[in-house]
Records
---
Amino acid sequence: MAKLYVVGLGPGDHDDMTVRADRALQSCSCIVGYHVYVDLVKERYPGKKLLTTPMTREADRCRMALELARGGEDVAMVCSGDSGIYGMAALIYELRGEDTQPEIDVIPGLTAACSGAALLGAPLTHDFAVISLSDRLTPWETIEKRLDCAAKADLSVVLYNPASHGRPDHLRRACEVLLRTLPEDRPCGIARSIGREGQSRELLTLGQLRDAEVDMFCTVFIGNAATRFIGDKMVTPRGYRDV
Amino acid sequence: MAKLYVVGLGPGDHDDMTVRADRALQSCSCIVGYHVYVDLVKERYPGKKLLTTPMTREADRCRMALELARGGEDVAMVCSGDSGIYGMAALIYELRGEDTQPEIDVIPGLTAACSGAALLGAPLTHDFAVISLSDRLTPWETIEKRLDCAAKADLSVVLYNPASHGRPDHLRRACEVLLRTLPEDRPCGIARSIGREGQSRELLTLGQLRDAEVDMFCTVFIGNAATRFIGDKMVTPRGYRDV
């Protein structure tokens, strides 16, 4: 029976894929995904059927993948980062419903909280929250509430989707919420295009972050009360007492 | 000049390591780590010097790794899961301080929030918090505050270190904090020994979780208001409006 793999590609570079994800892409007959992600892998895995849909047609993309697997294709549905975190795994399960076919294999991948952190140093280390600033599927009031709670609980925060064409000021508004609780000099970092052409990194304070330019390829890190810059790294100590 | 790799191994199975982590372990001359993690990799990478320290001697372990790299060894310091999240990357940077040598390369790995989620279905999908229940380095009051804030903000929650020999009742106490805000029937899941011998999974409600038996090899997932069970999977819908 054919299988539907929901594959987290990690940030973009093949080196950041897992062995399991690489094997699924080798073994499948068909790769389905948003065209940017299919473009990341199509040269390394030649001879596959490639099917893409535009960014906002996620449900169509998932229905297509399920239909292909029901028809006998081994399908790899590719997701950027992890397949579960802001990825397609949940939607695939929802659309399959109580049916047990096709078989689904969710293959996790490096999410930007991990890959972006490594680029900046070690900004997480301890408890943290991951919050998307996209209000396409979440009311902005909910996002604000989550930011406010995370700041009050001294959680480090990782912001996904800090901006897009339709919402250029979301990062500024998010920083204003955080600054109700956190100081202007709280260490922060921006990881850009992790593992892809144009990769870069920036260390700055929360006050500076409010006015920073970001796009949809950025992941933003806000430290907790212990976070500091050591050399050119953003580091949150774990708190080992014998250091 | 020798290099110090801080390598996230992922949950345990070689298939869940990244290509980059595999390459670092192949190229290094020396593997340093907590003995359980060194045991996970030593057979696949023969001919390396192996150095281990007990669990609570993290700073000693990091000093040893830095010293070896300064002495010319290419060192892979291995961490379970990600190298940054509850891993050794921050401590390595702290102990190196403002020095720029030895060169440090933090190689991220799959953290249990990603690998455990894939085992259970797709329980995260959207915004979430990662909170450790270990009070070895964090006051319990801080942990309670974080749990309370996460529940109030409708964040899914991933609990690391839900129990150990010295603190068997931490999960019960954490559930009691969450139940101040969340309902008894909130869907939850436990991922055990992910990617290792004895891997298992369990779906249950938050009320049941309060009395569940867990150990240090468990990762616990608490859903948000939208999370539900679909067949034998724990799924948090992303909220695509056209489903």
---
Amino acid sequence: MIRELVLKNRSYRRFKQEESISTETLYDLIELARHCASAANLQPLKYIISNTPERNERIFPATSWAGYLEDWNGPEDGERPSAYIIILGDTTISKNFFCDHGIAAQTILLGAVEKGLGGCMIGSIDRDLLRRNFLIDERYEILLVLALGKPAEKIVLEDVGPEESIKYYRDAEGVHHVPKRRLKDIILEI
Amino acid sequence: MIRELVLKNRSYRRFKQEESISTETLYDLIELARHCASAANLQPLKYIISNTPERNERIFPATSWAGYLEDWNGPEDGERPSAYIIILGDTTISKNFFCDHGIAAQTILLGAVEKGLGGCMIGSIDRDLLRRNFLIDERYEILLVLALGKPAEKIVLEDVGPEESIKYYRDAEGVHHVPKRRLKDIILEI
């Protein structure tokens, strides 16, 4: 069952933008993250939520999408995320966030998938712009933006050999293909 | 349901050591991680598994446990993990692993919980010792050790205020208490 969630939890980049996500849903997802492991239990992560067109428009221009798709600059209006969760690191609590944001982001996205939603972790962020757009204090490091919505694209996984390209691509039908390394290539026999 | 898994997925540090974990189970867990998101889909993570007493004894001395429990140096023989997954970053694929190991580690532990197991992400590692004990090539950065086993301790979560201590502690009955920040203290109202 976790396997189903993990397989369904793809990096979705096109959404049914008109399907809104409630503040309560976003709180539910952060409530999951709140109960996750954190290095030395310091819990330095903070969150900003966004689920209105006005707020979303302050986030979208600060995000970069799907670097390998050279002819695509991100979702068109109508296919954009209906919500976001910005993950920050509070430097007054810790200067090093280790992989806490990965733990939190993955948990949030698995929770989103369970709710029939989907999302994408975006690390390629115009941090200065995003900081200005929300007046984010310098004490917070901007770690990740999670885009969320009702997915409107098909994504398929493919196995890939160690010497082959891991670049995802979109076929003529608009299906998004994601190559993943094989188990035997990622487990070291030592 | 993901909520149940997340709440059950505590950082367990005492186990029923005699209950072994099969290689197949470890493969199943890494199979989950294999399908997770990875920055730019590079998938630089590699894994070493261990589930025999001989191999486990090459890992345990390289791990540090529960920094806040000053009178406890980690699990006694009989309560130690019955398996480990070492997460490495392959520097020939990427020099920066971002939070990929957090994504993978959380997914593996959620999978373990679903199987009736539990574990702990250990970042406090004697990396030189671990490298020597498994002859891990310099091309691999040692990112995390996941300890795994059948949990043999009770862990309870508690809410904590912003000015209170987040240090976990063990009470007179041996119950492990973990303070977690409240939702209202981690969501910024901006």
